[in-house]
Amino acid sequence: MTEMTLDQIKQENKAIFDKQRRYLMVVAASVAAVVLYYLVFFHFFGVSSQQFEMGNSKIMSYFLHMFVWRDFWDWPFGYYFKQIGITLAIVFGGTLTASLVALPLSFLAARNVMTGPFRLIAIMMRRIFDVLRGIDMAIWGMIFVRAVGLGPLAGVMAVFIQDLGLFGKLYAESHEAADKKPSRGLTAMGANNLQKHRFGIFTQSFPTFLALSISA
């Protein structure tokens, strides 16, 4: 009785079951493609099964040793907590500075602010933001270590540069998403461009600016 009922359901919803069958075939084909890719990759670079097993065993050994705490009470906890505090200070300082610097620069990248002949400035600022956030923070860190030496300052500058590119782009997009009606009303009242950007755009994008700065 149950099989007949199931057959009836399949007949009545044939399109749904056909779609499910196609979905499973796509999943199976994707899994087969991934497996084939790894087989070709291992064969091309000469990775044998013994090397693969040895690598996995070493990784598992390293992972297990992470949870083997010997002489726990003899650890230099003061040094550890000091380094954690320095790390948090580096991240906070770099992020806070980036958010404050990115805010005025984001207006230069907003296409609804930089209109007419100033449109080129918005394009250039967007490309600059893309470059800043496109380079990994570790690369920026190595550059600034070379420039200012090893220490917290290099870390702050690396965080600042990459967050500047990220915040600048996001802030500019929040400016562009602002409703145009308040700016039009301010224009009708005789407000200048600075007043329109301040009260017509920034008042709408400020919650986004605050949320992004806090969440980062």
Automatic annotation (TrEMBL):
InterPro entries per the UniProt record, alphabetical: MetI-like_sf (IPR035906)
Chief location: other
Protein's cellular compartments: Cell envelope; Membrane
Alphabetical UniProt keywords: Membrane, Transmembrane, Transmembrane helix, Transport
Record has Electron transport as a keyword: no
Statement: the UniProt record of this protein carries the keyword Membrane: yes
Membrane topology reported for the UniProt record: Multi-pass membrane protein
Ranges annotated as spanning the membrane: 23-45, 84-110, 131-161
UniProt-recorded name of the protein: Phosphonate ABC transporter permease protein phnE1
Upper taxonomic lineage: Bacteria, Pseudomonadati, Pseudomonadota, Gammaproteobacteria, Vibrionales
